[in-house]
From TrEMBL:
Name of the molecule in the record: ABC transporter permease
One Pfam short name: EcsB
Keywords from the named record: Membrane, Transmembrane, Transmembrane helix
InterPro entries hit by this protein: EcsB_ABC
Naturally occurring in which organism (per UniProt): Bacillus aquiflavi
Amino acid sequence: MSSKQLFLKRLFAEWKFQYGVFRTVLDWTVIVYLVIPAIVIFTFIYRSWWFETPEWLTYTQLSALFLVGYLIVWVGHFRTYILDADIVFLIKHQQLFIGVKKIAFVYSLIFHALGIGVLTVIFLPFFIRHFQLSNVQIFLYFLLFTSLKWLLMTLKRLLIRIERRFLKQVINTLLFIIFAFVLAGLYVAWVNEDVLVCFLAATTFIVTSGFIYIPTLAKLSEFNLDLMVEKLERIKYIGFILQFSYGVEKTKVMTRTKPLLFRRSQRIFKKRTPESGLIELFIKVFIRNPLYLFSYFKIIAVSSTAITLIPPVWIKILIFGFGIVALLFWISLAWEKILLDHPITKKYGQLNAYFVAKKKVTIILLLVGIFILLVVFILAMMFRNFLPH
C-alpha cells in the first residue's frame, strides 16, 4: 500500500466518522424539515444580495467583514490522519509514514484555503455591490486570510507543547492581540489597495509557516504531538454538539494540585454568618474554576462587541438590555450549579440565608457587568464617527 492509498483510506474513514457524529443529531426529520429548507432559503437570500443590497448592510462597516475573517482564521489545525496504532507499524516504515504526513499537509493547505474561498464568495455581493471593491482587493482578502490561517495553524501546533494551561492561555491571548494589530495595519493597506504591502505580508506568513512546519514532517519524534493534535481535531465536532446538550455535564475537571487563588483557603469575611459563608464558598469556586469566570466575561465580551460593531443606537440599547438579562439568568444558574448540585451544600437550599446570599451575589455581579457594558456603550457612542467604514 502506497502513502497515497493509505491517506485516502484514512481520509474516507474520517469522513465516515464525522458523518456518524452529525447523524446523531441530524436524523431524517431534522434534515427534511430544517437543514434542506435552510439551504434553500439561504440560496435565495444569497441570490437576492446580488440584485439588492440588504438594509442591515447599510449599517455595517467594511472593517466588520475583515474582523469576521480574522476570527475564522483561528479555527483549525494541520491534520496528519495518524492513529495510536501507527507507532507500532508506520514508524518501522518511515517513508510510508512521512509520505502520509506530507500528503495530509498539502490536503490541509488546500482544505483551509477553500474554506477562506467560501467565505470570500459569501462576501462577494457585499464587496462588489455595496463597498465597490476591485478584483485585486477581493483577491488580496482571500490571500491575506489564507496565508494568515496557515501561519496560525502552525503557531497553534507549537502552543500544544505547553503543558501549563494558564501560560498557554496567556500566550494565545498575546498572539491574538498582536495579530489583531498587524491586521489593523494590513486593513489600511488593503483598503488603499496597496498590493505590495499586502503581498509582502502574505508571503511572510507563508514562508514563516513553511519554515516552522515543513521540517517537522520528517521527524518521528513529533509523533505524540501529531497524535494529540489529531485527537483534538477528530473530536471537535463532538464537543461542539455536546455544548448544546443540556443533559451533559460540562464542568471542566481541575487538574491543578493547588488552586491559583485562595491556595490556603483563608477566610474572606471576618464576620461569620450563614450568608457570608455561602457567599465565600461561591466566590472561591467562581474564581478557582475558569469555566465560571470565563463564561461570565464571555457574555460581557459578546455583548460589548455587538454594541461596538452595530451602528444603530436603538440596536445598541437593545443589545445592552439583552446582555443584562443574559447575565442575570447566567448568575442564577451558576449559583444553583455551585451550591445546589453539591451534596453537602444542597441541604442549605431551603434556608432564608441561601436566598439572601444569592440576592447579594446577583446584585454585585450584575452591577459589575452593567458597569462594563455601560462604559463600552458610552465609548461606542463617543467614537462611532471615528470608526473606519
